[in-house]
Amino acid sequence: MAAAGPSVFLLMVNGQVESAQFPEYDDLYCKYCFVYGQDWAPTAGLEEGISQITCKSQDVRRALVWNFPIDITFKSTNPYGWPQIVLSVYGPDVFGNDVIRGYGVAHVPLSPGSTSVCENICFRHKRTIPMFVPESTSKLQKFTSWFMGRRPEYTDPKVVAQGEGREVTRVRSQGFVTLLFNVVTKDMRKLGYDTGPPDTHGILGPSPPQGLPR
Amino acid sequence: MVSEKSHLGDQQEPGHEDPNADARPLSMPTRRGPRSLPPIPSASRTGFAEFSMRERMREKLQAARSKAESALLQEIPTPRPRRLRSPSEKELETEFGTEPGGKIQTTQQEDDSQSYSRVKFRDSVRKIKSKTPDEEELLDDKDAVDFLLGLDRGAEDIVAVRPADYESVHIRLQKEKELLFIPSRRTVPTYKKLPENVQPRFLEDEGLYIGARLEVPRTNQNIMENRLLMQEPGRRWFGDDGRILALPNPIKPFPSRPLVLSQEQDIKAELETLYKKAVKYVHRSQHMIGSGDPPGNFQLDIDISGLIFTHHPCFSREHVLAAKLAQLYDQYLARRQRNKAKFLTDKLQALRNAVQMSLNPAKTPKSLDTTRRAINEYKSEIRQTRKLRDIEQEKDRTLLKTIIKVWKEMKSLREFQRFTNTPLKLVLRKEKVDQKADEEAYEAEVQAEISELLEEHREEYEQRMDEYRSAHQQWKAWKKAQRTKKKKKKQGVEEHPDDEMEEPYPGEDPVKPVPPEPTNQAVIEQEVRERAAQSRRRPGEPMLVPELSLAGSVTPNDQCPRVEVLRREDVKRRSVYLKVLFNDKEVSRTNSRPLGADFRVHFGQIFNLQIVNWPESLTLQVYETVGHSGTTLLAEVFLPIPETTVVTGRAPLEEVEFSSNQHVTLDHEGVGSGVPFSFEADGSNQLTLMTSGKVSNSVSWAIGENGIPLIPPLSQQNIGFRSALKRADAISSIGTSGLTDMKKLAKWAAESKLDPNDPNNAPLMQLILVATSGESYVPDFFRLEQLQQEFNFVSDEELNRSKRFRLLRLRSQEVPEFRNYKQIPVYDREIMEKVFQDYEKRLRDRNVIETKDHIDTHRAIVAKYLQQVRESVINRFLIAKHHFLLADLIVEEEVPNISSEGSGILGLRLFKLAEQKRPLRPRRKGRKKVTAQNLSDGDIKLLVNIIRAYDIPVRKPITSKFQQPPRSSRTFSEKQAASPTTHSPTHSADYPLSQVLVRPFVEVSFQRTICHTTTADGPNPSWNEELELPFRAPNGNYSTTSLQSVKDDVFINIFDEVLYDVLEDDRERASGIHTRIERHWLGCVKIPFSTIYFQAKIDGTFKIDTPPVLLGYSKEQSVVAERGFDPVRSLSEGSYITLFITMEPQLVPGESVREKTSDMLKKFDSQEDEKLLQATEKFQAECALKFPNRQCLTTVIDISGKTVFITRYLKPLNPPQELLNAYPNNPQATAELVARYVSLIPFLPDTVSFAGICDLWSTSDQFLDLLAGDEEEHAVLLCNYFLSLGKKAWLMMGNAIPEGPTAYVLTREQSHYLIWNPCSGHFYGQFDTFCPLKSVGCLIGPDNIWFNIQRHDSPLRINFDITKPKLWKSFFSRSLPYPGLSSVQPEELIYQRTDKAAAAELQDRIEKILKEKIMDWRPRHLTRWNRYCTSTLRHFLPLLERSQGEDVEDDHRAELLKQLGDYRFSGFPLHMPYSELKPLIEAVYSTGVHNIDVPNVEFALAVYIHPYPKNVLSVWIYVASLIRNR
Questions:
Q1: Minimal Cα–Cα distance from B912 to chain A, Å?
Q2: How high is the pLDDT of residue A144?
Q3: Closest partner residue to B830 among A7, A147, A167, by Cβ?
Q4: How distant, in Å, are the alpha carbons of B349, B1196, B1492 from that of B319?
Q5: Burial of B147 per CB tally in 10 Å (0-12, 13-18, 19+)
Q6: Which of B890, B903, B913, B918 is most worth mutating to test chain A (most A CB atoms within 10 A of its CB)?
């Protein structure tokens, strides 16, 4: 098999769930999991994780910072079903019930690269994911769910990573979560998949002339 | 620029200018510097300088100005005044350079002229405002001060203190004119929009497609054009036709989605849309085997108007001629109508003109070459046309000649025979022609022809000449060579005598070519004239027009000779009628009509054929009757079956010819037919005519009352061609059919002036083109996306060849084999070929009936059909699975239902909600069930707890040999009477208290794993043991659907352990014990795994299935004890076992089938009325509210997945007549027999056949066709039979052991109710404690549903009187009356007799297979078969079938003992319905007969199959082991 070349390619993702912007809420925690296709298999690392509870920063940004690490390696034979990270953020409501504050999803970046190769191109794989929650089906239900602290939730958070059946739900947007990724791929090019420049310096390229007005 | 520079160089300030030469505009103000000097107006103000203030200001100003000026002088560039420069000014500037001296002057002047107006304005203002001059001036000055003291504004402002500029309107307008452009509204002349000297070109006129332009008002268009012309002179906005380029109008003429009417709008009542439920046309599923197409009501109209004989045996000679004449005349008329000669003449003329035109070089600008080619083409065409014309003309002429000839013959014949038979009369009309013009035309024609021919010949001659020349040259060369050769030869004859032989000439000597002869004009002329004379009317000759009329008179009979009179008499005696044959069956016939003297018969009859089948042939048979003698078939006429578009009223009358080959010779004037006759007196020139004629008719499809043609649907037609065509292209599938319609389409397209270049019409045009050009060519494809080919990056074959792609595609199609395939390899080479093997095999097998597993072909077909139904249902399910409901995706708390429960309850519930959601001390909840995904083999165990058993059969004492003879000596009948009496004394004697009656133990086998309990004693043993059996899912797939489809059964067998003393010698008894353990099968309980899986646990007492005959055992003892006081008890006599079965760990049974049904209801559609469905939902909800555990069924899903109201399944249906005939006078026995028949239909749970989908109900005919079904189907069929037997019967839904929720049948006898188990055929009284039915949910009759609302649901404790509304809640009541629902069941059931021979054959095969199996199971021992015993058993089995296994034991036993006295015999008959071979083998295996390993054991096995109607087979297997007694 070694002679025949690689039969799988590897995708190593690490990074962090950096912070979130939820203007109205505080004391949130975040849960992440990966959704991937049939041809994918995790080889190392954690597929799921639940972060600590964080409080809003006291400065102007009012950011909820988790800096919760992600580290996983996949192997695959097929780019179809490229991994997606599904985030769900929870926190207490007025009555202290643990309720859902937002679901969000993002594909793992396709091209390899790191967030901080050089100061100039930092945050290449920084993703800001808009978060949303499903809406109640009626006003009354909205009230009771608020009152009871049992808001509508997805049966499985992974449904946000798929298109099927989404048409029956109505959602409301709610805040953002920022993610940082460092992505390393192996053997993708050998298998004929070109996902980007071979090295990160490539995109730096000749920098645009300095004196130009911006 | 260079020249300018040099000019500049001449200026006074060269040093100053030169460096900034490039930035000239900047430097300009410098040159204009003087302009910013103090302007003149200051002088005009002197008159007002009275105030000191003003003076001061002026001083200040002056100072500031001087200051500024000095600054200005130093700092050269100052911002230019804001003013647009006109081009004329620019001119001026350049002039400055040349005239430096006058520069300042000019500027000054210019300035003056500019300020002139301003000054003027100021003056006027001053004049007006003279009363308050001070203030104004003050302000003015203040402003100035502000300017000065404030920000540093433009130097000019500072310098030029003057009133605001005013421009007069005219000047402003003028200026505006320079700046502004107002596009004119006038039409722009076309030449402006086009490049010069170009004529506008209209593409539309050239036939190119131009879409409709968007409507834009003319003025707007003009404005736009003007603007564009002004802005961009490039004209690229304009098309070749001089209009603005524009895309075609994108607006569709009609909306593609329905209008959304706002709610305020009042929709008129008549416009309101009404919802109507789709009605199924044929209420039968097409899936079914043997159910044919529905009989339709179609009608074919055949109009037979008449019959004309073109020849008939009774024709006289004159008739023959008349017929011939008529025929010729018809031909003539047809020819004249077509007038081909004229057409060809015209064509010839046109061609000649064309040649003339092209020969004239002045008119044709084309190149010489093309002209010549065109001329050549023309010429060749002229030649052909001429030839054709000549032929046509000649034909016309000969036809005319023949007509005249025949007429003459006829006349002479009439004269000769001195009477006329036919009224035919031919008149030749002469049409005068202008002699001179005619002659000229004739001559011109001849001349033209001659000249053409000459030319032709000349050309030919030249060509030939060329040929000749070249040939001549060749010949010469050859000659020369020859000569030299000859010379050589002469020289070298001596030296090389062989040379001559070796060099033979290649062929003959070339003949000296003969030069072609030049054409002779005279000869050609001669030829042409001859031909013309022959084929054409001579000039001046009058044109002859024949006219045939029936004006002549027929000679009356009395003036005719005898033979002729005879003929006429004969004709009168004859009459003709037609038979109409449809699909080779006579359907109708016309009236018999006499043959007229003119041999015409008029029928004028229309036949309406009501047809069922698609017509294959339509034939008319012509019959002739002569007098009162028999009729003869003259001929058959085959009519074409009309196109589907031909409907009554539009079909033209057509004449179909026929002819007969009969030979008739007549003894009168009639010429006969098939017989030679002659017109000549000497009999020469003989003619043989056959009877022939024409039928005029029309065939068409009838139109129904509502204007719909009564045409059978396309599917019914011969499938091959039409359906292929239908699939092939869209148009024919839309409704029209066949090729002729395609032509009609083309015609329509031509008529409607379809734009052939419109891309919208492209596919249509292509189709029409194909249809009209190629006569029979129809494209075998319809391409939707014409450009698809171009975008394919690999060919389809290549794509299909790729194994990886195939795998990916199959996976995405969710093909079962690949649905869960993970990690599809990257390369094709890594994909093993065997991956596809299973799949391909399955695909192949779909069409192949596997005869290995299914012995009987019918069963094989059914199995295949079931497989197909299963697949289609699974596909539906998969589709439905992708259809999500909100509840599937989102977990949401239910809202307390206010409407139904009232506010008090809502408040209560809200109060309840206030409870702590996460209590500090949570209570323990039930263990969560394991989702069956991540399990593997060995994780799941089946726990079987065997508690106790009742009434196990007990051993009978071993009859010793000496007791035997007296018994066997009795006769059969004697025995029956005597046996109880003889038996009971032995009984009491045989049961000493100490003797062990029976030592039973239980063996549980599941998936070929066997566990057994310890042995207990007595007929009522108690084990209380738990057995653990591992469970393996098929293919290691533990998904819910897979588990639901496990078909394995749990066999619980009860054996008796028998110890045999095998000590041979009594003397050894003191020192040792030598016994052998044997086990005898007593009975079994079979529980399907699926039941355990769905029930999660099974707990209860079950009846043990004991064989009807258990040799050596009896249970008379207990029966005798109880029979005395409980008569009903006898009905349920048998043995019972108490069991508890469950699984460890507890599996989630997926969604239970019945739960899922309600979900599916929403997804699968229904034919039922919406109101009814709502009512059912309401009814069910109400029932569920009161008694959530009671089963309430109102709607079920039929085999095609539609929701059907349940009562539609119940309808009296006839049981097989055979069963009714068996006991004509005993209704109870008949009922039992019917129940037995139903129970013989194999049982197949729905959950197994439709893995995890839902409960499907098939109708009784489907059930009988399938020969498999679950409780519901059995119950429905049994209930229907009972209804037809006149019983009061209901379907009873409830819970039973071990089936769980099931269906039973309840019947009402005279005084009591009986509960029937449809799957076993047993029946129980209402108060039978051992009735397996434990609770009753609802009763279903043919017209209503009753839900049990009594306190109890056990059949023992409820009242079955459904008329009491307090006990039974009925679905249809006064508020909702029964709407009279039609049944889904067929009208009656049709039973085929089962083939006895096939059954016998099957019987033999089963026997053979079972014997082989038993030998297989005993690999270490020799298996001997006792033939004698086998044949005895075989005789005995039919007896068992007849008596249904009851009350035969004693006789049987006696019989056996008589025959096999020497053997110790243990064995029993097994009885089961036949479905497949596997259950039979399984059953035999589970008895463990083969386990005997006594060395001298012998076996006997007999199989008997009793066939019942409709292929229902009852199988009896008798297995026995024999050990010879010593």
A1: 11
A2: 85
A3: A7
A4: 44, 78, 102
A5: middle
A6: B890
How large a percentage of chain B has pLDDT more than 70? Answer: 65
B893–A150 CB contact, under 8 Å: yes
A105 has pLDDT over 90 = yes
How far apart are the C-alpha atoms of B1105 and B985, rounded to whole Å?
A: 29
Residue B1132 has a pLDDT of 45
Whether the CA torsion B954, B960, B965, B966 is positive or negative: it is negative
- Contact by Cβ (8 Å): B675, B688: yes
Q: Do A145 and B892 touch (CB under 8 A)?
A: yes
Long-range contacts formed by B1325-1331: CB under 8 A, 24+ apart: B1325/B1128, B1325/B1131, B1326/B1355, B1326/B1356, B1326/B1360, B1327/B1128, B1327/B1356, B1328/B1128, B1328/B1129, B1328/B1131, B1328/B1132, B1329/B1132, B1329/B1356, B1330/B1101, B1330/B1103, B1330/B1132, B1330/B1134, B1330/B1136, B1331/B1132, B1331/B1355, B1331/B1356
Exposure b/e, A178-208, CB count within 10 A at least 16 = b: bbbbbbebebbeebeeebbeeebeeeeeeee
For the segment A21-45, what is each residue's pLDDT rounded down to a tens digit? 998 899 999 999 999 988 898 999 9
pLDDT, residue B952, reads: 82
> Burial, B685: exposed, middle or buried (Cβ in 10 Å; 0-12, 13-18, 19+)?
exposed
- Whether complex ipTM tops 0.85: no
Cis link prior to B1030 (omega < 30° from 0)?
A: no
Q: Is the pLDDT of residue B1434 over 70?
A: yes
CB pairs under 8 A between A and B: 85
Q: What is the H or E stretch that residue B881 is in?
A: helix B857-881
Better-predicted residue by pLDDT, B875 or B1275: B1275
Kindly state the helix (H) or strand (E) to which residue B577 belongs, with its residue range.
strand B574-582
Q: Is the pLDDT of residue A86 over 90?
A: yes
Residues of B in contact with A132 (CB under 8 A): none
**pLDDT value of position B28:** 43
pLDDT at residue B574 above 60? yes
DSSP-H helix ranges across B37-81 = 41-44, 52-74
Nearest to A152 by CA among A141, A166, A139: A141
Per the DSSP assignment, residues forming a β-bridge with B1060 are: B1076
Would you mind telling me the total number of residues written for chain A in this entry? Answer: 214
CB spacing of B824 vs A4 below 8 angstroms: no
Give the integer Cα–Cα distance in Å for B1219 and B1278. 13
Q: Does residue B1229 contact residue B1314 with C-beta atoms inside 8 Å?
A: no
Structure tokens, B459: 């050309």
Q: Do A155 and B889 touch (CB under 8 A)?
A: yes
Nearest CB among A4, A77, A138 relative to B824 is that of: A77
Q: pLDDT tens digits for B495-524?
A: 454 444 444 444 455 566 677 676 677 887
Q: Which of B199-208, B1342-1351, B1496-1505 has the lowest mean pLDDT?
A: B199-208
**Does B890 contact A134 at a Cβ distance shorter than 8 Å?**
yes
Min Cα distance A7 → chain B (Å) is: 6
CB B1205 within 8 A of CB B1380: no
Q: Which of B892, B894, B906, B916 is the best substitution to test chain A (most A C-beta atoms within 10 A)?
A: B892
The C-alpha atoms of residue B1032 and residue B936 are separated, in whole angstroms, by: 8
Contact call for A38 and B811, based on CB within 8 A: yes
Whether A169 and B886 lie within 8 Å, measured CB to CB: yes
Asked which of B64-78, B535-549, B1262-1276, B1498-1512 is least confident by mean pLDDT, the reply is B64-78
DSSP string, B934-986: S--TTS-EEEEEEEEEE---EEPPPPPGGGHHHHHHS-HHHHHHHHHHHHHHH
